[in-house]
Fold this sequence. Notes:
The protein has 16 helices and 17 strands. It is α+β, with helices and mostly antiparallel strands. Strand 3 and strand 4 form a beta hairpin. The relative contact order is 0.04.
Amino acid sequence: MTMTNLPTSRDRNSEVAPSSQPSIEANSVLDKYAQSLHMLQDLFEQAPAAIAILRGPNYVIEMANPMICQLWGRTKDQVLGKPLFEALSEAKHQGFEELLAGVLATGIPFVGNELPATLLHAGQIQTVYFNFVYNPMRNEAGIVTGVIIIATDATQQIAARELIERDKEKQLVRQQVEAERKRLLELFAQAPAGIAVLRGPEHVVELVNPAYLQLVGERPETIGKPVRQAFPELADQGYYELLDEVYKSGEPFVGNERLIQLDLHNDGKLSDLFVNFTYQPLWNVNSVQVEGIFVQAVEVTEIVQARQKVEQLAAELEAVIEKLHQANQELSQADQRKDEFVAVVTHDLRTPLTSIKGYAQLLKRHLLKPVQNGDEAAWQLFLTKYLRSTEAILQQCERMEKLITLLLEFSQVQAGNLDLNYKLAANLVEMVKTAVEDQNITREDYTFVLEVTEAEVVTSFDIIRIEQVLNNLISNAIKYSPPATTVTVGIESKPVQSEVVVWVRDQGYGISPTAQARLFERFYRERTAQTESVTGLGLGLYISQEIVNEHGGRIWVESQPGEGSTFYFTLPLKS
Ligand code: ADP
């Protein structure tokens, strides 16, 4: 008898009622039996577990309580009396056949924990999880003839656990995200570069790190303010426009060693800083729209300044090297000029000496010649020759004297002891006039003109030295001009400036601008085709300048090559 054939409580009496009249004792046994059957059936029907009894090698479902029917997704009628894998054809090949066969063959129960089964529930394939026991059922002979399944639905339990696990996972992810966020914030806070996040088209300052605050200096709170408000001093420095451009174009901008002027102490004074920076556009989630700008900046002022300093030093060094080079060149030129000077001096001293010697020998010869008494003509000739030789000797002596005087003056100037012998209240006009008159007498090959408007210009100066300056300028004008040209000498007092100007103008070869700048250097001489044959030591102007300077005056030249030159010198007007 199968459990499905158990009598219900309603027909209990009719089913257990025998056709013959049993004894009272037998009746009471039957009653008890019926009661326990009834209890079992109730238990079976209401059990909080899913129970089914399978019989035979095909696992015919002999009994199934509502709960297992629910689990299987079938009604009782759909399953009772049918082989298990016919009633639940979708449960085939999920491993249950083997498990049941094992129990049937061995009689060893099988306990399954949270095993999944894919079943058809209300026309839908669903995976349900079971905890179950396959228990062998034996007949009186102890042979296993069936299997009793006792199962509970673990689906919800698993779902609940999954939920918890998912929750745990979520929490873990949340913790990880939080840790990551913290790490990022720390990085952000400790980053040596200044970082700021600007939002929207107005570049509202959203986030700044300490390095950024240090970079931009003391200022009122910047967070929440548009850049133009937070950094008003940047107007006209091009930074707003750069930000606008990055926001508009979505193209990042990299600035290298750019000058930025910031009000570092919030006192209206701008400081120059050099920065390397990037403006990186921040895109929205879909990467279609720029939402802000990520600013990263590092101050490199010291590096730039150090480099500028190095560059400046290098330039200075180059200038020094160039100067040294020039000085070297000048030195070698001066050396060359000195050699020439020595050669000229030697020549100029030797020439008159040779002449003097020649005339002296001639003189001696004349003197040794016996003069016949009374030979008047011979005596006269002797006297003439004697006179000529003496004059020539004197002339050469003068030449030598001039040269020696020049050398002496040079050495005085060099030694810095030009002792001036001031004459108080001397008339400079008088001196100029005399000098021109002297030239008019001795140099008929030139025309001399005097430009004088005043009868006298009286001041205090060393007459001999100033005369020497004037004569040097006049003799240069003659030396460096072709014959038949005019030399003009002029003088004019300038009371307002408290000075008197003297000039000597010629119509000579003129002087190149380069030479004009160097004429007053010692030994300097300009070499041109016209002046090639003119001899000189290059000392006259040098000494003249020293004399004029010593008097407190100035000396200079104005000249056009090919048109002539005018030399000027001034002396202070002293009463
Ligand atoms: P020196 O005449 O003995 O050479 P100076 O010192 O008097 O020496 O003159 C220096 C140089 O200046 C001359 O060699 C000549 O080249 C130039 N110089 C001076 N005066 C004139 C002038 N009036 N015209 C043109 N060149 C002149």
